[in-house]
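Supplementary Methods, section 5.1.

A reviewer requested that the exact input to the structure prediction be made available. We therefore reproduce it here, unchanged from the version used in the analyses.
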Amino acid sequence: MWCLSRRLHCYLRVSIVCGSGKKWFLVEFCGNENLGLDVNEQFSWQSCINMDAKGRLAIPTKVREELAQLCGGRIVLTATPMRRKCLLLYPEPEWEVLRPKIEALPNMNKAAKRLQRLILGNAALMELDGSGRILVPQTLRNHANLEKRLMLVGLGKKYELWSEESWNAYLDASAATRKCRRKWRRCRYERTPGRSGQ
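The structure derived from this sequence is encoded token-by-token as follows.
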């Protein structure tokens, strides 16, 4: 059994159940190392971009400049293990912080092995060309159902690359979940003993 937990600090939590109970393995997607970036300079950005039929896309100018300064335009693109499919885009130095932590997970555990296959096995090192473009491999395009219209979303020290359709569906589902939770809290409050008629 394994579960994934996304929090503000972007870590991955793998829960492995064994005979003596649960063991937790923490893998930080965004390490605490500064890597020369001030907190205010961490990636925070959303942009709608287009991908052509061959899988080529141009990174927006603002993002391109950030990546050029941080890693000379060298990035790693890989699959996400989350239920909602997208791709993860790391500056190369940030990837080198993350990769050993994933490699260190127990190889004999099925959940950890699946995680390693997804993230490490799909990792593609690439470099932005003179026009700020990259070529997304077909296997990664298939994984995230990427077609023409995409969303590039900045999350701290990495980016996510979504199909526009999947991104909008994710936002709609998140809004519906929040609405349901607010309704549930209100009903629970109103049914609290001593609060009827107030």
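The domain at 41-190 is CATH 3.40.1550.20 (Chemotaxis protein chec). These observations are discussed further in the main text.
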